[in-house]
Recover the amino acids of this structure.
């Protein structure tokens, strides 16, 4: 039997979702191959690139090897190649690995940043629409702030310590939120005052997050950024970018060496000569069933569109947004109609396939504004909801193993307090898993002082000053307050009890447990998370002073 190929170009959310859906539905049909083509061998979680760019997570956090995603999908064949064009008459896709024949074709090649022809953006600025670009930003910011800290010329220093983001859409707002948190880390690393690192958000329109219908949520995001030292400039139309900074329409400038452009999205430019009807942003227009359309508005029978390549307006929900839900809704409709064409189901319009649950815009790891299932909210619970949304999307295309690592990377492996709990549950900030042991020790010492530990009462004390110390030790350990010195006191109390009342294996257990909780367990759901850094700041300042990136202690003596 002759095999037939369903070719999908692009391994973004739209392409991967379409491939997963088709693979499942065609599992028992050996005569169909699903061929997924992408120039990368991995899938990238595009909406989390700002976390990579700002050093919140490692690059691997937003990558998943395509082999891992599709290893169990035996009817999916992977091809790492670039697509050069389409021959609609011969029904082939031309790639750098040769021509691939297709029975059905899905175009989901994704998008790229749209600089609207603004001079100098590509030469002197950065864009955030690929893993490579996020890594370039990550390296540049670290290097430039480091250079700025060592620069003695005031004007050059200010220029190098200024980070500007153009565009206040989802990407721009989320990236700026990450920079708010990264600024603290950079300031500590290079002995700077946080106020020296200037964050500037440039928006040409009179408001931010203009895609939000609920303006109260946009106002909350605006206030959060403003309260955290972001210079938000509305009506700031950028007309050029130079080596020295940003040029505005009124002729004024902003000196900076770090400009990130997030002001627009368009389809990949190489699809412009593939012979379709193109809409806004160079996207391919589609009909209600996600067929690509020709210039005369007739559909291409065997070619479908999904993801950021798509231009389509639904009568009820409006234009399909460049979001994960938009990509998956289009892919869901395209897959259903391909299956219907092949005789394995009923056709389905976009309106029948679309599923929009809402959105969540994270302004860093600590604050989010969200509108989900008709509810608008912000802050901590919105941040948790944002992670819930990500996990929901992950569950549709990724494995339980990947979901586990997402949770680890976003909650338990985070550095510098960059998670919704501000680091209190991070394994890198404390020994989280010893927290239950700490709580147990706290309760044990309180009960020992009260004489409520049964046959073990004779091993400890229930009266006098020693009992008072047991109460203090137990309460402090339970609350996670001054855990290190109280852990040491717990060991001392146990050794004295051992020498006074005789040896029991319980003493060894208490000693070793006390030693274990001294390694930072008070910062895991404990008061030490707040108290220890405060004490370090106060007493460290009194004894060592405050480190700076530059000194001039002769200034007032000359």
């Amino acid at each position: 039997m002759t095999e037939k190929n369903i070719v999908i170009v692009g391994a973004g959310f739209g392409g991967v979702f379409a491939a997963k859906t088709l693979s499942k539905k065609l599992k028992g049909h050996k005569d169909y191959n699903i061929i997924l083509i992408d120039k990368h061998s991995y899938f990238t979680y595009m909406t989390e690139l700002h976390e990579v760019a700002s050093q919140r997570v490692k690059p691997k956090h937003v990558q998943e090897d395509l082999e891992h995603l599709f290893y169990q999908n035996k009817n999916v064949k992977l091809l790492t190649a670039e697509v050069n064009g389409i021959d609609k008459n011969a029904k082939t896709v031309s790639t750098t690995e040769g021509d691939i024949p297709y029975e059905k074709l899905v175009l989901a090649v994704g998008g790229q940043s749209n600089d609207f022809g603004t001079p100098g953006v590509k030469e002197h600025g950065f864009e955030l629409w690929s893993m490579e670009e996020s890594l370039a930003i990550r390296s540049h910011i670290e290097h430039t702030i480091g250079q700025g800290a060592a620069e003695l010329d005031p004007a050059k220093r200010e220029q190098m310590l200024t980070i500007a983001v153009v565009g206040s859409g989802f990407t721009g707002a989320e990236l700026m939120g990450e920079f708010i948190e990264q600024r603290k880390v950079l300031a500590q690393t290079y002995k700077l005052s946080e106020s020296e690192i200037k964050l500037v958000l440039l928006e040409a329109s009179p408001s931010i997050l203009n895609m939000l219908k609920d303006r109260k949520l946009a106002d909350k995001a605006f206030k959060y950024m403003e309260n955290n030292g972001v210079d938000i400039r509305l009506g700031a139309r950028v007309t050029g970018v130079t080596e020295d900074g940003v040029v505005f329409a009124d002729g004024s400038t902003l000196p900076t060496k770090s400009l990130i452009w997030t002001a627009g999205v368009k389809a990949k430019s190489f699809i412009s000569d593939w012979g379709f009807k193109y809409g806004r942003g160079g996207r391919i227009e589609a009909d209600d069933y996600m067929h690509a359309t020709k210039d005369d508005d007739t559909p291409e029978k065997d070619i479908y569109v999904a993801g950021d390549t798509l231009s389509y307006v639904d009568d009820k929900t409006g234009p399909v947004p460049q979001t994960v839900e938009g990509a998956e809704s289009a892919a869901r409709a395209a897959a259903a109609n391909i299956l219907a064409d092949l005789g394995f189901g009923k056709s389905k319009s976009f309106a029948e396939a679309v599923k929009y649950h809402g959105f969540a815009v994270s302004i860093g790891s600590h604050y989010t504004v969200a509108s989900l299932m008709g509810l608008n909210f912000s802050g901590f619970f919105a941040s948790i909801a944002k992670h819930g949304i990500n996990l929901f999307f992950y569950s549709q295309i990724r494995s339980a193993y990947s979901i586990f690592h997402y949770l680890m990377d976003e909650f338990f492996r985070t550095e510098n307090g960059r998670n919704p709990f501000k680091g209190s549950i991070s394994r890198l900030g404390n020994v989280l898993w010893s927290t239950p042991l700490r709580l147990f020790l706290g309760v044990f010492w309180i009960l020992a002082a009260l004489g409520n530990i049964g046959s073990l009462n004779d091993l400890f004390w229930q009266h006098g000053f020693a009992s008072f110390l047991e109460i203090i030790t137990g309460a402090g350990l339970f609350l996670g307050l001054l855990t290190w010195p109280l852990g040491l006191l717990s060991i001392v109390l146990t050794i004295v009890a051992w020498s006074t009342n005789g040896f029991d294996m319980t003493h060894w257990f208490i000693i070793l447990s006390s030693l274990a909780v001294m390694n930072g367990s008070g910062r895991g759901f404990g008061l030490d998370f707040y108290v220890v850094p405060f004490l370090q700041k106060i007493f460290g300042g009194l004894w060592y002073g405050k480190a700076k990136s530059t000194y001039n202690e002769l200034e007032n003596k000359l």
In short: The chain has a mean pLDDT of 91.
